[in-house]
Amino acid sequence: MKSVGIRDLKAKLSSYIDLVVKGEQILVTDRGVEVAILSRVSDERRAIMDMVRKGKAEWDGGKPKGGEGIKVRGKALAETILDERI
């Protein structure tokens, strides 16, 4: 992981963003103290944001709301478990 100070990051931001796009993580320091890590946006975040754009989910940074959920055939899982207990 590459390390960069804030001053150098500001001066060469495009270069560091290019590295991040290629998959590298950049550790940002402020006077030698680690303050942040720059990394690519995760596939999970991309999927959530795609669902939000399509109106299939709502997200305010916590647990996503809405969506179509998982559809299963047959009896509900809870019903199956209750049947097995008898």
Describe it for me?
With 86 residues, the chain is an alpha+beta fold. The chain folds into 2 domains: 2-38, YefM-like fold; 43-85, no CATH class. Helices cover 41% and strands 22% of the residues. It has 4 helices and 5 strands; from the N terminus they run βααββαββα. The protein has helices spanning 6-11, 13-21, 43-53, 77-85; strands at residues 2-5, 26-30, 33-38, 57-58, 65-66. The chain has a 3-stranded mixed sheet with strand order 1-2-3. It has a two-stranded antiparallel sheet with strand order 4-5. It is elongated and about 65 Å long. The chain starts with a strand and ends with a helix. The mean pLDDT is 86.
Summarize the structure.
The model has no long low-confidence stretch (mean pLDDT 86). This protein has helices spanning 6-11, 13-21, 43-53, 77-85; strands at 2-5, 26-30, 33-38, 57-58, 65-66.
Keywords:
41% helix, two-stranded antiparallel sheet, three-stranded mixed beta sheet, alpha+beta, YefM-like fold, 2 domains, 4 helices, 86 residues
Give the end-to-end Cα distance, rounded to a whole number of Å. Answer: 56 Å
Q: Helical amount among residues, as a percent range?
A: 40-55%
Query: Mind describing the biggest β-sheet?
Result: 3 strands, mixed
Query: On the 0-100 scale, what is the average pLDDT?
Result: 86
Order of helices and strands: EHHEEHEEH
β-strand percent reads 15-25%
How many domains is the backbone divided into? 2
Quickly give the structural class. Answer: alpha+beta
What is the topology, as strand order, of the major beta sheet?
1-2-3
User: Which stretches are low in confidence, meaning pLDDT under 50 for 5 or more residues running?
Assistant: none
Globally, the shape reads elongated
- In total, the number of strands is 5
Rg from Cα: 22 Å
Helix count equals 4
